[in-house]
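Researcher: Please predict.
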Amino acid sequence: MDDRYEFDDPWATGVYETGRTRPPKRHTGCVAGLLVVVILLTGVVSLLGFLNVQLAAGLSSDQPEDGDIALEISETAPEETGGDQQPIPTEETLPGGTEPRVELETSPQSVPNVPQEGGMSLQDIYEKNIPSVVSVICTLSGGSSTGTGVVMSGDGYIITNAHVVEGAVSIHVLLTDGGYHEAALVGADSVSDLAVLRIEAAELIPAEFGDSTALKVGDSVAAIGDPLGVELRGTMTNGIVSAINRDVATGGRTLTLIQTNAALNSGNSGGPLINCYGQVVGINTMKIGVFTDSSGVEGIGFAIPSTTVQDIVNQLITQGYVSGRPSLGLTGQTVSTFDQYYFRLPAGLYIDAVEADSPAEALGIEAGDVLVRVGDTRISGADDLEAALYSYEVGDTVTIVIVRNGQYYQADVELTEAKG
């Protein structure tokens, strides 16, 4: 071993257990240099300040004395210069002193806003219809949703959209007066997007329905509902009829609707579109564009005409379904992405029930099968099935493809009438 490292003092090597232990080097030279730099900078700043003071003094000596006018104003008449010259404001001409101020004048009282000759004011339209507008609150298997409804009879029948109550485990209705009632689903038609609810209540105030065929483009209309939820319930917006008999494609089907620029938002669905006479001429159902839409679409909303509402709702109340709607005689739910990977199922409609005495039952279709094709339409969910059936009539025969235990089967089935 090198004798240079044979020391009894453990500090002698300069290293001991947790790290270096030599005394730190002195930095006297660095500190002195830093002080010199600071002194030099201070001197420069002082010199600049002195020069600035001298410059300011020189400039002030060139300014006009009290009473002199630094700005020359032409005394030529406006007619000679060809322009209208205004005098420079002085303390006497400026209201409230040398600085301009906002002054408020007395405003007239609010006056009735009558949108069309012979019509009602917007205030009266709201007062007439607000007792007939309700909040629809749905509990879903994975959360909740809200919408709007319209009272159609004093004994508790309420109209709303089918998509508002779709998949609801329970439905409740909140009245304008604060009454809270559980609602039963009388019937729903996803094709027209209309549904009828019933609550156990009496002496409700029904809305007055008008004839939507009398509407013209430019007619004034108003909407009442719960935009963005119950917190903003009873909100009224107004606009005009932007178009009538507008064909709108949605979910593989085409609806003939009223187009309006009255503001409609999520939560307005199922609420009334009201004409200038206080009559409900449509049930609001959808809008194009949302506030996050990059296209920036605004003022394009749609309502189901009251003539369509009359036909569909009356059938839902009397028989619980709408005549003429084709059906395969089975019901199901969309195969989720998780189920596709975990259970090795194809994308399609997982059949959970087959109607008794239906052609589907006669073919041997069972719960647990997956429907993947109807005619030429690839089925990946319930919306695709609805769109596929929309092009057929009751009694038509259509070729379907199902998957059972990994095997594909093809069969022809006759479409029956949906019973709700």
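Model: The CA atoms of residues 96 and 368 lie 83 Å apart.
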